[in-house]
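Notes from the 1:1 (GR / supervisor)

We went over the backlog. Supervisor wanted to see one worked example end to end before approving the batch request, so GR pasted a single chain during the call. The sequence is below; no edits were made to it. Supervisor asked that the structure be written out right there so they could see what the output format looks like.
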Amino acid sequence: MTGGQALVRSLEAHGVTTVFGIPGTHNLAVYDALLDSPIRHISARHEQGAAFMADGYARTSGNVGVCLSTTGPAALNTLTPLGTAYSDSSPVLCIASQIQTEFLGREKGLLHECSGQSGGFQAVTKWWQTATTVEAIPWLVRDAFAQLGSGRPRPAALEIPCDVLDSAGQPSLPAPLEMELEQPEPEELSRACRLLEKARRPVIWAGNGVIRAGASDALTRLAERLQSPVFTTTLGKGSIPEDHPLSAGNTLLHPAGRAYLRTCDLMLAVGTRFKEIETERWRLKLPEQLVHIDIDPAEIGRNYGVSAAVVGHARPALEGCLELCRGEAAPSPDRVREVKELRGRIRSECRQRAPAAVELVECLRAALPRESILVCDLTAAATWCHHLLEVYQPAGFHSPWGFCTLGFGLPAAIGARLAQPQRPVVLLSGDGGFLFNCQELATAVECGLPLVMIVFNDKGYGVLRPQQMARYGRTHAADLVGPDFTALAKAFGAAALRVERLEELSRNISEALRQPGPCLIEVTASIPWPPIETTAGMFAQAEVSTQ
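Structure output shown during the call:
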């Protein structure tokens, strides 16, 4: 078989059913092989879009998202999405072609030649390799999936020179490696559970690692066992249903959340890295005792000292805690009431300072079915939803929060919808971010995806205006001339609606959800942007407008 056929057969063997990409001169052997494969190919309009689609697919399905690109400029176009996936621990496999093997590193001036292509992948992946023979391709695909399925789930890249893709060979097709969950050490688990049992007022902080591990049920049962409130990070939203009586939401950086944390004597942190934006540059004061569960040993103690560490997959670690923690500590029976009062206070204070933002969140929640998936780009509306919108199911909330990447939203939403066609998918984007990858409207229309895209049009980069005013007293290059977004959507063949007052939003979302294909809602109502100078200010000083 050709190298292209060997690659496609290897992807089939690893359960891949969907790939995202764009054909090019150097990878046509792959596309010819796909014609004889059950794998569905989704044609993006830009390689950045293809890789973001693969990321959205991976985050939502829990499986590896695969994107294909040709050589040079196409491969480099995938680096920003791969960096986003790397920062947010998403398993994306990029397969890119290369120039002919004999010319690698010789700087002869070949078509698409890029001396730094391999180095680019090295910067944003946990694993990358180059296949130099047809026979090597299946084994490298197996290695890539093994890397993607073990440890922290970060992206991988495989380069294949175009002559290898076109050549014929006799490769064997090895079976995928059976990956076992990384089990925690019994001694580590025992020490952690002894501290949990002694704690009088424990609190849990759940991150994206809970969702990636499929550990939401175990987390919820452990919280009930300990009667412990559960806070989440932004990417941890949905790790416990946010209408659960012990769910405190993503509210730790609100002054009330900080004050509550000071009443707790132990934190169990699961699947979170304590990143800058989640801890206000590590100024968030944690309880005296910290138990940290994470699959990556390098993260233990990196940003906060720990009292006990459990290295391993979150699901067996939390299930092990359930086995060992019997609830003898008799925690306070009033903690459900405390959580209810805390969330009520936060909502009330936000309503006083930014009523439009709270109205927006309530309009969204009223219109969205419980099983909806919300995909966010970087915009004021999305930031309020990070903290105030309730999410009820795992993989129900996606944001490029680690890398803060504009342009993530639309293609990631397409990937999410393809991964979970039975769940409604709604995109929140600003006008600036939407224009980064608006061409992927064509992909959404081509695939007939019932996708709701809400674009908040404040005619500029709303996040930058208040920062510039706060620092310099004036703005520059933050205002944008943009299109009529409803006309743009219709030009691509999508349905479109316009909302000028927030009270119209719920009705229009309901109408958009009934559309058989993609529907864009342009919102011109002003949404206040929380200041970015300090993350805690997102709640406490929310009167800065994007206008």
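Supervisor's comment: The chain is about 40% helix and 15% strand.
Batch request approved.
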